[in-house]
Amino acid sequence: MQLAFSLPCSRGQVVGRHCYNMLFFRSEERVREWCAAHGYPIRPLVTMDQLWTLATTWYSTRLQENSRRPQPDEMRAIFAGLGLGGDFWDPQSDTFGYP
After folding, report:
1. Apex CA 21: angle with CA 9 and CA 74, to 5°?
2. Long-range contacts of 22-25 (CB under 8 A, 24+ apart)
3. How far apart are CA 50 and CA 14, in angstroms?
4. Does 12 fall in a domain?
5. DSSP 3-state helix, strand, coil percentages of the chain (rounded to 5)?
6. Under DSSP, is residue 8 helix (H, G, I), strand (E, B) or coil?
7. Number of domains the chain contains
8. Predicted pLDDT of residue 97
9. Residue 94 located in a structural domain
10. Starting from the edge strand earliest in sequence, which strands make up the sheet with 2-5, in order?
11. Which domain holds residue 44?
12. Residue 24 domain-assigned?
């Protein structure tokens, strides 16, 4: 199973907006078909294992009183640890031309 994000990381500042744009597919082939049919560029894909590790790392302190959202440098480190690099995963990048 593959997860496709239609918005880059820098556009996911509002969690609901980012979650709304996560699309699950059975295979990379299905992702390519869907993108072609809907006029979306193909974005980096995330496996279920990467997604699980991302979620458990990102939210590991949520039950602590002083929990906070990861800062941009922490986000980059989390993504890099999962092999997710480049401008798409940079929380401060604006190279994808979204309004």
Report:
1. 25
2. 25/1
3. 21
4. yes
5. 45, 10, 45
6. coil
7. 1
8. 45
9. no
10. 22-25, 2-5, 45-47
11. 2-88
12. yes
| The residue type at 44 | P
Residue bearing tokens 């997710």? 84
pLDDT at 6: 64
Q: Which residues pair with 47 in a beta bridge?
A: 2
SS3 at position 2 = strand
Type of residue at 39: G
Q: What is the pLDDT of residues 19-38, one digit of tens each?
A: 666 788 899 999 999 999 98
- CB-CB contact of 46 with 54 (8 Å): yes
Q: Is residue 99 part of a domain?
A: no
The answer to whether the beta carbons of residues 98 and 11 sit under 8 Å apart is yes
Among 36, 28, 33, 38, which Cα is nearest to 4's?
28
- Under the banding of pLDDT at 50, 70 and 90, the label for residue 8 is low
Q: Cβ neighbours of residue 93 under 8 Å, at least 6 residues apart?
A: 8, 9, 10, 87
